[in-house]
Amino acid sequence: MSQSTASSDWEIVIGLEVHVQLHTRAKVFASCGWGFGQEPNEQVDAVVLGLPGTLPVVNREAVERSILFGLVVGAEIPERCAWDRKNYFYPDNPKNYQLTQKDFPVVVGGKVEIELPGASRNVMGEHKWIRLHHAHLEEDVGKLSHAGGGSLVDYNRAGVPLLEIVTEPDLRSAAEAEAFLRSLVAMLTQAGVADCDMEKGQLRCDCNVSVRPRGATKLGTRTETKNLNSISGVRDTVIYESARQIRELQAGRTIVQETRGWNAEQGRGYVLRDKEDAHDYRYFPDPDIPTLLISRDTVQRLQQQVPENLYDRQRRYMEKLALPYTAASVLVAQRRLAEWFEEAVAAYPANPQGIANLIANDLLRDLAAGSAESSGEGVSTTPAKTVDDCPLKPAQLAALVKLTDEGLISKQQAKEVFAEMFKTGQDPMVIVDQKGLKQNSDTGELEKIVREVVADPAVAKSIAEYRAGNEKAINALKGPIMKRTQGKANPGLIDQLLRKILG
Amino acid sequence: MSNALHQLSAVELSQRLQAGTLTSRALVDALIARHEAVNPKVGAFTALDIADVRAQADASDERRRQGKSRGPLEGIPVAIKDNIAVKGQPLTCSSKMLAKLVSPYDAHVTEQLRSAGAILYGRLNMDEFAMGSSTENSALQKTFNPWDLSRIPGGSSGGSAAALAAGLVPLALGSDTGGSIRQPASHCGVVGLKPTYGLVSRFGLVAFASSLDQIGPMARSVEDCELLLQVLATPDARDMTCFDASHRQPLPVAAPAALRIGVPRGFLGKGVAPEVVQALESVLDFYRRQGCAIVEVDLPSADLAVPTYYVVATAEASSNLGRYDGVRYGHRSTQASNPIEMMTNSRSEGFGPEVKRRILLGTFVLSAGYADAYYVRALRARAKIRAEYLGALAKVDVLLTPTVPTPAFKVGEKASDPLQLYLEDIFTIPANLAGLPALSVPCGRSGQLPIGFHLVGAPQSEAKLLAAGKLFEAAHGFAHQQAAL
Questions:
Q1: Which end of chain B has fewer surrounding CB within 10 Å, N or C?
Q2: How many CB atoms lie within 10 A of CB A218?
């Protein structure tokens, strides 16, 4: 085989295993609750600790969240799913086996649409579908730490429901892997399946990478890098690991199938164990949990909860509502924001673009500013403010756009009114009245001002040009009129009066 | 029948308590006196908290005085095998690994006994983690057969059977994975029932082999067994394999007039002692005289039962016992420099030889490259055995065999030959593999040594088994017998 030399001669092949903590009240096989930031071993019970004689009971909420995910990605929901025991000894694993689904997962197949970055912020990038192999529901393990010459173990995380989402090897670059994870996170959070807070470890990835000469059909030997807890970690791992593998092959060496770790501080991967050290997990069907039958009624009920697909919504905004890509992509990124936008459009369907602009520019800016304020010294754990955290209602925003469109206030004034609405939640008309912002439409008073301006010798030249047939010359008279009315005059009315007076 | 309190049946005691001629306190005081005299010889109990038992009895008497009796078991002591959780009491499984463990919670059956007013009466010795047929595998103490103290009581519920035969308690709980209730019942001349898999919640039963384990009642009569079963057999949402209310058949039902009794072809063949053959033939004669039809049935895969069992049970056990690692509870080795070494050493020090043997066997049969040849094939054999038993039980009401091929052997006799010991369970294992109810009832003697017969029925046919057992019991003198100690 001829040795390829340039890295562009190589194709990178990536498959991801994404572990997502599901949004549930109780743990997956125990009635014990869970959450972030508790004291060690506060969130445990006899079942979580695997005390002798305790038994697992499947949490229906966790199963339904898993099914909902399957429906979001258009997967098959088999009529039965079952759990297996994965046996291995480690102090963070209370039973020394993990309950997982090896042969009968709750979700089979499915695909996720991704969007690659465009040429610029304002240009939509290429879309692609990534196939999923399956998703299975399992239990998380605890955490082992070493301190003061001893080891400590915290079982708060043990038994937290984990959905492991396994892709086909369809991803071809770090950018695609990153786009996939962003799309997946958006789908999981928008459907309420999971919160995906990576700082709390709610999403972790195992990243399988191989390379092959471009055009080859056979997959190269892959390595698996374990336990990446950020999207950037996955991106950096793909870049690092693919480069390493290409270097190895270019140097005439072979790739060893191995399990690797990633050191984010140093930006480099390292070998955890090779194939010979691979665990024999001695999987077998868990005898404590009977095969679970998933009724079609349950599936149908959950189907009702599936939100509109992210990119279907984006396409609809661009095609049906004529929004530019940037506004559409900003709005669909958050389900509540998109719904909020749609409520506003429903209240005033004439100008979706005007509504979108106010949201994308003014509303999101003010929300972001509010978040920064409440989080003080840049403490990032304060959740970002959402549309539901401000007093402004969608119908009020719609009313503001309507006022502007009807010429009652100018666009500049609209921004001022918006700032007040964002703070107080008052109706725009009330603010317009209070601030006396209403454009002057009193013909009598305005006509007087227009006549005075027309009589001013300083504009005689413009009047002459207008009368000679230069339509645009009339605009030179509008500025002084506006100035004298302090901007309150209705521009349409000024135009009318000028044309009448100048004949 | 003597009038000594320790010799009375639970039904009789219940009547006296209800009639007001006996208090629970007087009963437990009599049993405690008996315990102090006899238990040191028999070794049935590993723990008995006398103050706690007296307090429970006083509370029961108080409830009765206030007209708040909780039912027929109110004030009756029930002894519990040391692998069933009782809050605040030891849960050792007769293992060094859990020798110091005190359960922080109640098993479902324990809750049921409490709400029935029963006295939770002490902890019973067993083979370590219920692995064995002689109770010689207990890491805590030896238990001896009350009928001959040089012999084993059977196992793994040997403490339960011996306590009943020695008159230490009227009722006991055992657990049965391959015969662990029925085999010691047979060896000690008492009655033991392994319920249909799923009838009694396993929540709080320390798992040996989860797909085979069932808790069951043991007593000196079939009637007493039935009384206890009714308290145990209730739904429990904490065990997903336990039948919910909609999947339960009512207990008890009237006995059918004439049973069809199936006997497996060739079941009294090689390996069954002549005195056992003789006892069984007299049992069959009895039922024939009662108008029952005796029918030969074919169970061609029955020979696969023992090997199948020792693959399935050890595979599950190897995983179930993984949790005993010294990290959270139980024996922790002091000879370790890191957590993994600590776990390894704790297990090496904490488990006895039979438990280790089964963990190794189970680990092997699940290993990559071997699982298909052993574990997966065993599951197929299990399905075949179950199908054959269900097929046979569609034609007959019950299947009848001896419970054990031979009477109780001498202490130490088979200790060096585990394979020989595994054959003790040849008649009892199929009911576990097939999830069927099975009952052992005393039916004869070889000298002093009791012999029992074994009835297996279709799923949830406990009422039928108990009725057939009562029919035999009523016509013979084997019920209520106790060893003279």
A1: N
A2: 6
**Which of B82, B95, B128, B327 is most worth mutating to test chain A (most A CB atoms within 10 A of its CB)?**
B327
Please report where in the chains the tokens 């009350």 appear, as a residue: B146
B247 interface with A at CB cutoff 8 Å = no
Please indicate whether, in this complex, the C-beta atoms of A94 and B105 are within 8 angstroms of each other. no
Contact of B468 with chain A, judged by CB distance below 8 Å, is answered with: no
Domain B5-258+397-475: give its CATH architecture: Alpha-Beta Complex (3.90)
Residue A3 carries which side chain, given as an amino acid letter? Q
Residues B180 and B202: their CA atoms lie apart, in Å, by 15
Å between A296 CA and nearest CA of chain B = 21
Distance CA A283, CA A102 (A): 8
Are the C-beta atoms of residues A212 and A159 closer than 8 Å to each other?
no
Which one of A97, A282, A292 makes the best mutation probe of the B interface by having the most chain B beta carbons within 10 Å?
Answer: A282
Tell the residue number behind the tokens 């694993």, with chain if given.
A93
Note whether A55 contacts B238, CB cutoff 8 Å. yes
Q: Residue A87 is nearest to which of B239, B319, B328, comparing CB atoms?
A: B319
Tokens at B370, concatenated:
């071997």
Q: Is B337 on the interface with A (CB under 8 A)?
A: no
pLDDT of residue A378: 42
Q: Give the Cα separation of A151 and B337 in Å (integer).
A: 11
pTM of the model: 0.91
Which residue stretches of chain B have pLDDT < 70? 1-3, 251-257
Local structure of B156: helix, strand or coil: coil
Bin B423: left if φ > 0, else alpha if -120 < ψ < 50, else beta: alpha
Rounded CA-CA distance B119/B77 in Å is 4
Chain A environment of B316 (Cβ under 8 Å) = 284, 287
Yes or no: say if B430 and B376 are a contact pair by the CB < 8 Å rule. no
Residue ranges of alpha helices (H) inside B169-263 are 182-188, 222-232
- Please name the amino acid found at residue B174: G
- At B215 the three-state DSSP class reads strand
The position carrying tokens 């096989």 is A29
* Distance between B192 CA and the closest CA of chain A, angstroms: 22
Question: Minimal Cα distance from B215: which residue of A?
Answer: A53
- pLDDT at position B128 is 98
Test B105 with A46 for CB contact under 8 angstroms.
yes
Residue of chain A nearest B212, judged by CA positions: A287
The domains found in chain A, sorted by start residue, are 7-300 (no CATH), 309-435 (no CATH), 443-502 (1.10.10)
Distance CA B170, CA B228 (A): 11
Q: Work out the end-to-end distance of chain B between its first and last CA atoms, rounded to an integer number of angstroms.
A: 16
ipTM of the complex: 0.96
Q: Which residue of A has its CA nearest to B362?
A: A282
* Whole-number pLDDT of residue A372: 62
Q: Which residues of chain A, if any, have pLDDT below 50? A: 1-2, 375-382
Name chain A contacts of B209, Cβ cutoff 8 Å.
Answer: 287
Q: Half-sphere exposure of B440 toward its Cβ, with a 13 Å CA cutoff?
A: 35
Q: Which residue of A has its CA nearest to B243?
A: A290
Cα A329 to Cα A52: distance, rounded to the nearest angstrom:
53
Residues of B recognised as catalytic: 81, 156, 180
Whole-number Å distance between alpha carbons of B348 and B226? 41
Q: Does B425 touch chain A (CB under 8 A)?
A: no
CA–CA distance, B15 with B431 (Å, rounded to integer): 34
In this complex, do B328 and A49 lie within 8 Å of one another by their Cβ atoms?
A: yes
Residues of chain B with CATH 3.90.1300.10: 5-258+397-475
